[in-house]
Amino acid sequence: MSSKNSLTQIYEKRFSGYESYRNKVWKLLITNFFSKWINPDDHILDLGCGYGEFINHANSKVKHAMDLNPKTKSLLNNDIIFHEQDCSQAWKIESESLDLVFTSNFFEHLPDKQFLNKTVIEIKKSLKPNGFLIAMGPNISVLRGKYWDFWDHHVALSDSSLTELLEIHEFKINRSYPKFLPYNMVRVKERPLFLVSLYLRFPFLWTIFGKQFLIIAKK
To answer: Can you give the residue ranges of every domain in the chain?
Structure first.
């Protein structure tokens, strides 16, 4: 079985039946939180976009999405430019053309730290001066052993280790939250959407329930 077919099989098994709920949650996350970093004239990329929950709801002039899963393209809105490729290889995106690169729960799935390092090089190359990287993911310093509950987690990351990598590449950390969202939206029952909105409004809740880091870095 090829790696692309493996991705399709893993994510269909993991997310099947949760698509509608995940889309509603991501719409809330963008409207109530992430929209402050997205302008209508921006060129943005959703890196490791999965089923497109972020990029489909983002409001910007030019939208790119990158993933190796061949099923992804069929789930994206028609106005999104899809790049089906290995993110550690040269991107087919013009240098210094992006205002924002967004990535969620993706870096830990890369095969090793060299792949991640090469990916950060491509991110920096594609961002405009003063462009932003928003990276979210499970924090191993908080989760410890539970970090490995997913078969396709390979790279162990904390807010501190990712910050160090970004600073090596001369990114400036704009904001860093060791605890932001809970661990995942699978293997748990759906929660009322008003609770998601409430959670975002009160950061003290993040310190109690948050298991994912959120880092906002500037080129």
So the answer is: 3-218
